[in-house]
């Protein structure tokens, strides 16, 4: 191998692109944002500075929230090895909901002069948010960020994180721009002018077939970015459903129970017994570390190649895992390998293809047990929790069912072309394929991390949880036996006995 050949193989062009440059990140305290900040600090030592746009929240100012961010377990590796690197991160008070991002004159001027790369992640990911809130944050917030980017004197690229599920009327999504469901500028003016109660009353008409405000507003935001392609070097990244970390820095880590993790925990606790879902359908999931790697590599690719601007970073074109497979793997893990604490029933249940069958099971196995157990909890002097939990599960079902019972496919030509041009070093640092994934081990790590970081259930409780799960298994089998005996008794009492 020649010296130049080895040099090419060892190049980390992401670090080269960020060398002595400044990043501005919105949404840096969110799930993907945390992983992005950690990954950049760990693999791009040449970066000059990262500015995080952070607002006040729950009585905490931006500096306090930055400290809270670094207290997250995901930064433990950096704190143990490269603690000085954390000093490259600085906070700027800002809020994408406020006019001109709520920036002071001095901070805005500083960002205009110093910012080289923007990653815009800030968005509400709640599917059921009121339309006004979703528009102001997801759409108008994107407009404000684009306005700032156009003023930046040394901007290289503006990276907008969209979603693969924002053009839901397209059954095959290509890596190109699509017309928005409405004029984003008019929708912004509409929600600014009208009272929220009036907007809520006409939301269904405005959505015009879109299942929720999240998908609708993300499509509008993407259109604003597309409109600026002649004025700015922008990229659009479309990840699918983002799930916990696969490989590093902490396998299985997450900071929320949204989406699949919420279903896994609910099933593991025994409170989720039925789902209305096409069991052979498949969803498009992407571990957050792979999504973040894709964000960094597509940014570099777009700057180097200059022609690719929109990337579908999805997984189902390579790996299709059915809902049935996911549920069976999850049940096996929480029942046998690493059960959760406080399980109210042995994990079981199934997916239903009939909505009527599903609703009957919801009443029998969700609502009635919740009412009975909550009554016992109340009579014992404690606060009932199961009925409220079931209401949250039901609300989540309304969102889940749409995506679980519809199917989309994605074309990833641009993302694959970018992958083909990576050096050996880049492939090592920024893994973006699923080669080597063991689903059983992945979900095991997800469950373990959920116990530790979400449910605060330490490893010392696993032995007790296994004993409790064994008891639940015995109770489950006993109840099934009693049901069978009860059925045969009724058959005998009302059908066979009169004939004797």
From TrEMBL:
Keywords: Lipid biosynthesis, Lipid metabolism, Membrane, NADP, Oxidoreductase, Transmembrane, Transmembrane helix. One of its GO terms (molecular function) is alcohol-forming very long-chain fatty acyl-CoA reductase activity. Its EC number is 1.2.1.84. It is found in: Membrane. Residues 365-457 form the Fatty acyl-CoA reductase C-terminal domain. It comes from the Eukaryota. Residues 25-295 form the Thioester reductase (TE) domain. Its main location: membrane. The keyword Membrane applies. It catalyses: a long-chain fatty acyl-CoA + 2 NADPH + 2 H(+) = a long-chain primary fatty alcohol + 2 NADP(+) + CoA. The keyword Transmembrane applies. The chain crosses the membrane at residues 356-379, 478-495. GO terms for biological process: long-chain fatty-acyl-CoA metabolic process. It is an enzyme of class 1 (oxidoreductase). InterPro entries: FAR, FAR_C, FAR_NAD-bd, NAD(P)-bd_dom_sf. Pfam families: NAD_binding_4, Sterile. Catalyzes the reduction of fatty acyl-CoA to fatty alcohols. Belongs to the fatty acyl-CoA reductase family. This is Fatty acyl-CoA reductase. It comes from Photinus pyralis. The lineage of its organism: Eukaryota, Metazoa, Ecdysozoa, Arthropoda, Hexapoda.
